[in-house]
Amino acid sequence: MLDPGPTGRFGEFGGRFVPEALVPACLELEAAFASAWADEAFQARRSGLLASYAGRPTPVTECRRLSDRLGVRVLLKREDLAHTGSHKINNVIGQALLAERMGKRRLIAETGAGQHGVATATAAALLGLDCTVFMGEVDVERQALNVFRMRLLGAEVRPVGSGSRTLKDAVNEALRDWVATVGTTHYCLGSVMGPHPYPYMVRQFQRVIGDEARAQCRALLGGSDPDVVVACVGGGSNAAGTFAGFVDTSARLVGVEAAGGAALGNGVPGVVHGMRSMFLQDEEGQILEAQSISAGLDYPGIGPEHAFLAASGRASYFSVGDAEVLDAFKLLAATEGILSALEPAHALAWVARAAQDGGIEAGSTVLVTLSGRGDKDVAQVMDLLG
Amino acid sequence: MSAPGAPVRPGGPGAAGAAAAGTLASVPRRPDAQGRLEARLRERREAGRKLVVPYLTGGLGDDWLEVLRAVAAAGADAIEVGIPFSDPMMDGPTIQEASRRALEAGATPLGILGALAAAEVEVPVAVMTYYNIVARAGERRMAGALASAGVAASILPDLPLEECGPWVAAADEAGVENVLLAAPTTSEERLAAICARSRGFVYAVGLLGVTGERRHLASSAREMAARCKAATDLPVLVGVGISDADQARTVCADADGVVVGSALVRRLLAGAGPEGAAAFVGELRAALDAG
User: Fold this and answer.
1) What is the complex's ipTM, to 2 decimals?
2) Domain-located, residue A2
3) Nearest to A284 among B1, B109, B162 (CB)
4) Among A157, A214, A329, B67, which is least packed, fewest CB within 10 Å?
């Protein structure tokens, strides 16, 4: 995929729309990332931690019973098996090492479902850094277990009571903290969003998903690539990391949004949280609240590179509703013995629908990134299914 | 809403002007002619006066236009009017709350501008809002709407120098002065470029942080004022964290004046009304006039 260059542009999307106080920090981060990414010692330390601590490479699992059911061959990239239970650890290890390299001893992070918060708290504990996680009050309530996990890991969790009290408000509050603490604090942003260099940097830290999966698929498929590569999209980090491994193959790339948070499906261009991208907003430019059963996709925007991939036609984006997601969640559990997080259950729900309605040709091979495990969602699913 | 089953494709690739966007080279030079806000502030400064610019949130309370007139009469040299935004990331709890209340009461950008057009205050007004409000309307349309409403200037805290090209091009054409902000983290090199492009005045952010009152004046406030004064002949106003008359007087040892937001808005949220607002601005005026 693209190197967005010093202006952080993916076509018309991206950029660095932050208060002047943060511009120097973004420039410093951009330079630090470029130097670290080119530094063999940094890369060796990062790969070492990804292997010995985070459990990489994660496997690709062939889903025989699910495939029989759907009539397409489904492969899962198992990010649910990474340490902390989701792909978020890939990015966080990279950024925590970078913070250390920049001499910043405090990490702040936003979190929706809590997975990125848990991952950041984990990396902070591992490297002995201070950590504060901002989380909307609504999410604090529906993800109580992850709040407790973060506190066990030594992080301070600050509930955010402003606005819709979900992920977008947690981002606002993290940015407000960063404006005041930028000299000593690194903002460990959890997705391919925000001001440059975050969308690019986070995708590079997540591309391990796609790079591994491509080699694993080729081994499984006798040297070929899958026909379709699918991932769920909130901000879009697991999808960006997955697509990075396949963008130069002939595989069709599909991102799946939550129907209540479909920034590409229902949004229009805007500039929020440091980036020009697609956002759910009203006629006046007020940002709307996303609505989804999955806290991790409850975000009214999307990473700028996804807006670009959609505009250029290289990737296509669809949305699925809560009911289909619950069906997919149950289907994977019953056929493969895997409890998916609700976020990647969106990707599975689209595959189930498309396999039925001809959206995917029968007999195709489909790689789905299972971005996280479902333990955090089991109580919520129990309530929903009664 | 896209048809079910159909993929979505926003815009199209390679939108116009994308190549240069986000660079200093994409920012048009400042026009030579002084705008109305700058002219007024210079004139007042040359008369030996320190400048007071109160901020109030547009649409906050039914009587916000009366508040505007009252603070104008109480000695404001210009007035900053906020167009509320759903996600005000540079604002602390006071202005967040004011924005929330104004939006809940139905405030809209065009509604506020319409009211300003009819208000006929003689003191120059600068609109403060976030860039998405401008981007959603479109740069040219918003610049035209500001000019028709008699608004002299704009302040967009999330639109930094390198990204401001499309907006300042439209604002310059419409005769709207776009004020740029400088922060304590700004390098000397950036400060020079900011001062060279700012119109109306230079907004020196007095501390690292979001808007809101502070018990003590940050040491960075006077430093910022002095740094900006050394870099430009434009009026230099310090804002963010200026909480009372004492702090305003202290910072004006270096600055040409102050922007005072949260301290006024807190009083308005508590029901001070036009009289209370005028009394507070009067206090600031008296303290600065006493020197």
Assistant:
1) 0.95
2) no
3) B109
4) A157
